[in-house]
């Protein structure tokens, strides 16, 4: 779920009439703190047509009610063939040139009935039982990573903790053998560092992942085990119409959708706690008292307050339709701004306040509708384990730099920090 890096100001086509001009979108300062611009859009131009830094024109949907409705609207397709400006073989949605290679024919790029069939198959393999059984392993990975820097008094929490945890967890879940996991970690790192810009690194790392997954599926077929790839192979062998390419694309989307998101849940969540003293103290008290209720509501609130997925992935109007009073033409791309919807004062009282005990918190951080996050139970497990262990084992954890010195990644879809230097 990556996107182009910000390059310049918003070059809005349909500038709304308002007392103040449209604030710049997709600049570096916007990447640091997009929330004031989103507040402006929600109020003055809630369904806003804009030209993205890539030159593609799209609609931004920023109010909670419109966002929720759009996410569940079957007239908004996930299949890029519906993009009016899309040429065959040219992907606007993800990694350049990969659509033709097959890996991009995955859950986030398809509609029913294919989506229904594939999602049903993977849901069987992605059972709550498998996730629950995974809890001790996630705890072990978390402790091992913290052990590596606990004595040093300082760390970069992105590099040393938030980045390796989900990749090792996903490798274990898929069934990538231990000796291959560092290669996998390098390829995944390349994908994130370069976003989806037209740079060779991304295409190269995706090619490596594709070749590796194809080979792994062959190896597993001869030696099925208790892991997700083996489950996918079993499903395809039982005549459930899952081709080998679909199995590889499924493994890829699980990596691609579950990796950077979880890094950013841990990164953005830790950052929010480190910059909100009262909430941090409350979090620590709850951990000391074994109050798991606050851990659960707290992680949900961190997802609402500054979630990893800033914009939901691309959708395309398959017919002319109306969203929030704006006429969307057939073929227009629609981007639902989850980060704006989750700060909508029409839905959340005091939306800019971090309240770890917030109830009635139906945030859109995991999306909504048929593409609702498949990995949400695993993400919750990883987020809760990571944050609870970090703040229990390093009780005086604090930022090592001024918040103004931190740099945010510039991708369109994801929101996350490049580094998070801490001391303890
Ligand atoms: C905090 C971490 C996570 C967040 C915030 C998150 C968020 C999301 C969101 C917003 C969507 C819907 C996108 C859209 O409709 O455009 C989504 C879909 C998805 N997520 Fe997650 N995700 C997280 C972790 C994970 C993990 C750990 C996995 C798997 C290991 C995963 C697998 C998926 C898959 C496969 C989809 C596509 C589902 C479909 O199209 O039916 N996610 N996620």
Summarize the structure.
The protein contains 17 helices and 10 strands. With 424 residues, the protein is α+β, with helices and mostly antiparallel strands. It binds protoporphyrin IX containing FE.
Strand order of the largest sheet: 1-2-8-5-3
Total count of domains: 1
Per DSSP E runs of 2 or more residues, the count of β-strands stands at 10
Helix content: 40-55%
- Global geometry: globular
> What is the average per-residue confidence, as pLDDT, rounded to a whole number?
88
DSSP summary: helix tally: 17
Please state roughly what percent of the residues sit in beta strands, choosing from under 5%, 5-15%, 15-25%, 25-35%, 35-45% or over 45%.
5-15%
**Which ions and ligands are bound to the chains?**
protoporphyrin IX containing FE
How would you portray this structure in words?
The protein is α+β, with helices and mostly antiparallel strands and 424 residues long. It has one domain (28-423): Cytochrome P450 (Cytochrome p450). The protein is 47% helix and 8% strand. It has 17 helices and 10 strands. The strands form 3 sheets. The chain has a 5-stranded mixed β-sheet with strand order 1-2-8-5-3. Strands 4-10-9 form a 3-stranded antiparallel β-sheet. A two-stranded antiparallel sheet has the order 6-7. Strand 6 (321-323) and strand 7 (326-328) form a beta hairpin. The longest helix is centred in the middle third of the chain and has 23 residues, at 200-222. The protein is globular.
Give the topology.
Layout: H1 28-32, H2 35-44, E1 47-51, E2 57-61, H3 64-71, E3 76-77, H4 114-125, H5 128-133, H6 135-149, E4 154-156, H7 157-162, H8 164-174, H9 181-193, H10 200-222, H11 228-237, H12 244-258, H13 260-274, H14 277-288, H15 292-306, E5 315-317, E6 321-323, E7 326-328, E8 333-336, H16 338-341, H17 376-393, E9 398-399, E10 421-423
Parallel strand pairs: 2-8
Antiparallel strand pairs: 1-2, 3-5, 4-10, 5-8, 6-7, 9-10
Helix pairs in contact: 4-11, 6-8, 6-17, 8-9, 8-12, 9-10, 10-12, 13-15, 13-17, 15-17
């Amino acid at each position: 779920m990556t996107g182009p890096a910000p390059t310049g100001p918003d070059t809005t086509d349909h500038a709304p009439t308002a007392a103040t001009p449209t604030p710049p979108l997709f600049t570096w300062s916007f990447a640091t703190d997009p929330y004031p611009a989103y507040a402006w859009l929600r109020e003055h131009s809630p369904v806003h047509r804009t030209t993205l830094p890539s030159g593609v024109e799209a609609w931004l949907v920023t109010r909670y009610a419109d966002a929720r409705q759009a996410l569940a609207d079957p007239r908004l397709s996930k299949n890029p063939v519906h993009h009016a400006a899309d040429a065959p073989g040219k992907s606007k949605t993800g990694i350049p040139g990969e659509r033709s290679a097959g890996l991009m024919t995955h859950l986030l790029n398809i509609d029913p009935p294919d989506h229904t069939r594939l999602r049903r198959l993977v849901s069987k393999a992605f059972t709550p039982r498998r996730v629950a059984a995974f809890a001790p392993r996630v705890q072990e990975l978390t402790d091992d990573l913290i052990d590596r820097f606990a004595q040093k008094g300082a760390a970069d929490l992105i590099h040393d903790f938030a980045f390796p945890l989900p990749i090792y967890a996903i490798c274990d879940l898929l069934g990538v053998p231990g000796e291959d996991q560092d290669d996998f970690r390098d390829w995944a790192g390349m994908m994130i560092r370069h976003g989806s810009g037209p740079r060779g690194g991304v295409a190269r790392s995706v090619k490596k992942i594709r070749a590796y997954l194809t080979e792994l599926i062959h190896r597993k077929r001869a030696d099925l085990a208790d892991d997700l790839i083996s489950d996918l192979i079993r499903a395809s062998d039982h005549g459930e119409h899952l081709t080998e390419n679909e199995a590889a694309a499924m493994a890829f989307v699980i990596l691609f959708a579950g990796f950077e998101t979880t890094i950013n849940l841990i990164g953005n969540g830790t950052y929010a706690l480190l910059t909100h003293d009262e909430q941090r103290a409350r979090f620590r008290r709850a951990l000391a008292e074994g109050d798991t209720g606050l851990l659960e509501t707290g992680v949900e609130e961190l997802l609402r307050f500054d979630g990893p997925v800033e914009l939901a992935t691309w959708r395309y109007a398959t017919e002319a339709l109306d969203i929030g009073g704006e006429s969307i033409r057939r073929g227009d791309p629609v981007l639902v701004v989850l980060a704006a919807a989750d700060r909508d004062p029409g839905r959340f009282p005091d939306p800019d306040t971090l309240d770890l005990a917030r109830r009635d918190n139906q945030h859109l951080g995991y999306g909504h509708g048929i593409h609702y996050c498949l990995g949400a139970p695993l993400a919750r497990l990883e987020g809760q384990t990571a944050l609870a262990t970090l703040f229990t084992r390093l009780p005086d954890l604090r930022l090592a730099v001024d918040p103004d010195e931190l740099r945010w990644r510039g991708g369109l879809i994801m929101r996350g920090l490049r580094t998070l230097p801490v001391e303890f």
